[in-house]
Each structure stands twice: as C-alpha cells, then as structure tokens.
Amino acid sequence: MSRARVLLLEDDMALRGLLHEALVAEDFDVLGFENVEDLRAA
Questions:
Q1: What is the model's pLDDT at position 18?
Q2: How wide is the angle at C-alpha 33 spanned by C-alphas 30 and 36, nearest 5°?
Q3: Which of these, 40, 10, 8, lies nearest to 26 by C-alpha position?
Q4: Any idea where the domains of the chain sit in the sequence?
Q5: Distance (Å, rounded) from C-alpha 3 to C-alpha 35?
Q6: What does the pLDDT read at residue 2?
Q7: pLDDT tens, residue by residue, 1-42
Q8: What pTM does this model have?
Q9: Using CA atoms, how far apart are residues 7 and 5, in angstroms rounded to an integer?
Q10: DSSP 3-state of 23
Q11: Phi-psi region for residue 27, left (φ > 0), alpha (ψ -120 to 50) or beta?
C-alpha cells in the first residue's frame, strides 16, 4: 500500500519544516514548496 501524498505550500520555512516533520511522522509522503512558482515547476 502506498502512502498518501501531501503537497505543502508554505512560505515560512520554520513552519513548513514543522508541518513537514509532523506529516512525515504520520506516514505521509510530503512535498514542500515555498511558493506557487516552485510548485508549478515540480
């Protein structure tokens, strides 16, 4: 069974890191982005 994927868009690096760690701990596959342009380029 594959893990659920989360796209995390947050411009605050500290908050993005905290959310990323929390979601990974809950077994999500997390892709974090600082802005919409980075998200679109992925």
A1: 98
A2: 130
A3: 8
A4: 5-41
A5: 24
A6: 81
A7: 688 999 999 999 999 999 999 999 999 999 999 999 999 998
A8: 0.83
A9: 7
A10: helix
A11: left
Residue 5 identity: R
Q: Both tokens of residue 3?
A: 């893990």
Q: What is the 3-state composition of the chain as percent helix, strand, coil, each rounded to the nearest 5?
A: 45, 25, 30
CA dihedral over 27, 22, 13, 5, signed as positive or negative? positive
Q: Which residue has 């892709």 as its token pair? A: 31
Paired tokens of 30: 């997390």
41 in Cβ contact with 17 (< 8 Å): no
pLDDT the model gives residue 12 = 98
